[in-house]
Amino acid sequence: MSILLMLIPISLVLLGLAIAAFVWAVRRGQFDDLDTPALDILDDDDKPAASPPDKPQDPSDAG
Amino acid sequence: MSASEDACFHCGEALPTQPIRQSIAGQSRSFCCHGCAAAAAWIGESDLGGYYRLRSAAAARVDMEPVDLGIWDREDLQAEHSHVINGGREIILLTDGMRCAACAWLIDRALAREPGVIDSTANAVTGRIRIAWNPEQTLLSTLLQRLVMLGYRPYLAGGEASERARLRERKRWLLRLGIAGLGALQAMMFAEALYLDVGNTMPAPTRDFFRWLTFLVSSPVVFYSGWPFLAGAWRELRQRHLGMDTLIASSTLLAYFASLVETIRGGTHVWYDAAVMFVFLLLAARMLEQRARNIATAQVDALARARPAFATRERADGSRESVPVGQLQVGDVLRIAAGESVPADGVLLDSDAHFEEALLTGESHPVHKRVGAAVYAGTHCREQPARLRVTEVGASTRLSQLARLVERAQSHRPPIARIADRLGSRFVVSLLVAAALVYLGWRIYAPERAFEVTLALLVISCPCALSLSVPTALAAAHGTLARLGVLATRADALDTLARATDVVFDKTGTLSDGESLQLQVEVFDNMTAERARDLASQLQRDSGHVLASAFAQGRDADRATEVETVTGQGVQGWIDGAQWRLGQAGFAFGGRDDGGIWLGDGQRGLARFILSEQPRPDAAQALDALRARGLVIHLASGDGQAAVQQLADTLNIAEPRARQTPEDKLAFVQQLQRQGRVVAMVGDGLNDAPVLAGADVSVAMSQGAPLAQRAADLVMTGHSLTRLAETRDLAMRTQQVIRQNLAWALAYNVLALPLAAAGLVTPWLAALGMALSSLLVTLNALRLTRVAGSASQS
């Protein structure tokens, strides 16, 4: 049971770290905008976007 | 996506008969107006075409009306609303066109391409844009011009201090929830160790060690994260109105302090885990509900916007200066450019002018004002510039009087006791009484178990499911509403809408869009309708009058000569060798004025034009849907008898009310309310604001006046009126789900209470029952996220 004397302080330290990290993230505004950053990954800034694949009416309309 | 062939590629609105076609990224697209086409062209050229793929809602229509953004560069404005940062200045503004995250994405990218922009972030949820720019490299107005061109008009945010306070509040809630989550998890871990010790084999010092540890991690959860409940309970106690917060706080505190007592004296049970789980779950539910409502209010807030307001004042020597509206004084002489809004009430000097008073009267046609006539703040000067002498400023203007009427009507709104509150309050009282009785009973029967049983009773009957039942249902319903294109800004809006019996509609801007005019022609003698139209359009060519746009279709070469406007009467001119007059009957042929517009040659009236407003395309369908749901439809408008009657006939509305002032409309609604009806009001103009505030539940159209939206409970962001019936359905379903949830939660408690009172319930059984019950209630609420019939608008 003496292992508890080590594990429990460790768990408390980890809890403290988790809370500290969370507080830091909130203060830095990481949670301010939860919608826009999700879109960044969907669009590639480096190369011009290719013709959107999800528009079925496009080919007939091309001209 | 909204890019179907019969809708504008950019904004998704219905196309006019002759759409603008333009090639975007190699494909031909149709647009409703040049503004949309220009925006789409720029987006395509700038390689931002990803916007059209990413967006989940159609863009706002881009207005081609030029906007003067020069005032944004003024030093006094920037000093007040922006602050200096390293290398430049930073400002937070509001905009109205941001409808989904892709808009924020587009704004970020578009601004990043402008030279001189240091940094920018746009937030679609709150409708706010933060721009940091270097004033030496670019003007703020240049950046804003780019936004306007994409369809996002800038407005002043309510001041930096309130913006920061809003952000701080949101962060505090997040911290509370995060700490509650982490703390509750850890407390549960320690509690688990105690639970697993079923045979009581753990040595007492180890057990106490674990209990103290649990105490340590649950304290911040109960007191920091749970503070909103504690503060709420204290407020309820002071107001002598017991509600949910009292119950939550008393259960939490009892569980916490009882555990502490047990820990100190080494008793058999601790309930720290119950205390922290309450706080965490309830905090999460409350945050969900608040977030849904905050999104709605933030968007309306973004609509209830302010523009930087400056007026052009004439100095004594005739030169002009630009001054903030707040500095105007009675007696000042102002110059109003065409298209500008009037900053203060005044009388017209020098020459006649036209003013659009839609904001005040709901009448969308410009009103002709003669020299000396009163002009009101908030109206728009049309066609030619005007000079006026200020007679009223600030709070004494007609505009401010209307605003005060709104506030008064709001405070007199019939009180609505919310079903959950009512139930909750009774439940709290009876539960506390029951707990006291049980305690007394056990004192007599078995004093050593009295405390423990009472506590078990309070824990098991914890109103978890009961408190979750309403917030979860509301959160789910608000989410669905947002997808329908309806923003609910007040908590009880849905409740009242479900009980509504009558719907009162405004005309212009609500049932009709106020723009598409229909021209009917009656001809006499040997005149033909085509010729009459042609002659009228020739005469109207240069007048710039609103009617001119209705006449404009089908005009070929200009043949009219010597066209002159006779003030207040009409126009006359020579066409193909004959003189024609267009205007009131007396002017056109010497007849009696009948409200129509006549074409005549001075002796005979040859054609009569009747302008009528077209109802919105879906108005009839929407009204039928509402009637099918048993609602009585009324029409109250500030417009003239003929126009109102005509629209009422088209839409089959009985007893329309015409020429209604804001006060009349409010009186009409209050009269209905006295008859015991529950009135829903749908309107858009500032003239509707008082009645919107006074009705039991009110719906404003998003194109309408900001003040009307601030007074309304629901704001419709889409154009479609049919959403109204769907919203009503959702409101009914929400009420139903809330009732089911409450019934279940109460049944569970009624069942569990006697068992707990008899001392038969072990803590783990109580915890399991509580969790299952809460889960059931939440799942039931989630049914509301399904949209019946036509799905979301994207």
Task: Note the main attributes of this structure.
heterodimer, A: 63 residues, mainly alpha, 3 helices, 52% helix, B: 794 residues, alpha+beta, six-stranded antiparallel β-sheet, six-stranded mixed β-sheet
What is the total tally of β strands of chain B? 28
Question: Most extensive interface, residues per chain?
Answer: A-B, 34 and 39 residues
Distinct helical segment count of chain A: 3
Unreliable stretches of chain A, pLDDT < 50, 5 or more residues?
A: 47-63
Rounded to an integer in angstroms, the radius of gyration calculated over CA atoms of chain B is 32 Å
Word description of this protein:
The complex is a heterodimer of chains A (63) and B (794). With 63 residues, chain A is mostly helical. Chain A has helices at residues 3-27, 37-40, 58-61. Chain A is built from three helices and no strands. The model of chain A is unreliable at 47-63 (pLDDT under 50). In chain B, helix 9 packs antiparallel against helix 10. Chain B is α+β, with helices and mostly antiparallel strands. The relative contact order of chain B is 0.08. Chain B contains 26 helices and 28 strands. Among the domains of chain B are: 1-65, no CATH class; 70-157, Alpha-Beta Plaits (2-Layer Sandwich), CATH 3.30.70; 167-304; 485-509 and 621-731, HAD superfamily/HAD-like (Rossmann fold, 3-Layer(aba) Sandwich); 514-615, Calcium-transporting ATPase, cytoplasmic domain N (3-Layer(aba) Sandwich), CATH 3.40.1110. The A-B interface holds A 1, 4, 8, 11-12, 15, 18-19, 22-23, 26-27, 31-36, 38-40, 42-43, 48-49, 51-52, 54-55, 57-58, 61-63 and B 1, 3-5, 25-28, 47, 49-50, 52-54, 100-102, 104-105, 108, 121-125, 167, 170-171, 174-175, 178-179, 182-183, 186, 189, 206, 213, 217.
Lay out the secondary structure.
The complex is a heterodimer of chains A (63) and B (794).
Chain A: H1 3-27, H2 37-40, H3 58-61
Chain B: E1 20-24, E2 27-31, H1 34-45, H2 50-54, H3 75-81, E3 82-85, E4 88-95, H4 101-112, E5 117-123, E6 128-133, H5 140-149, E7 154-156, H6 160-196, H7 204-225, H8 227-238, H9 244-265, H10 272-303, E8 310-314, E9 320-324, E10 333-336, E11 345-349, E12 353-356, H11 358-361, E13 366-369, E14 374-375, E15 380-382, E16 386-392, H12 398-411, H13 419-445, H14 450-460, H15 464-484, E17 486-488, H16 493-499, E18 502-505, E19 512-523, H17 529-540, H18 546-551, E20 561-566, E21 570-575, E22 578-583, H19 585-589, E23 597-600, E24 605-615, H20 619-628, E25 632-635, H21 641-651, H22 662-674, E26 679-683, H23 689-694, E27 697-701, H24 706-711, E28 714-716, H25 723-757, H26 763-782
Parallel strand pairs in B: 18-25, 18-26, 26-27, 27-28
Antiparallel strand pairs in B: 1-2, 3-4, 4-6, 4-7, 5-6, 8-9, 8-10, 10-16, 11-14, 11-16, 12-13, 12-15, 17-28, 19-24, 20-21, 21-22, 22-23, 23-24
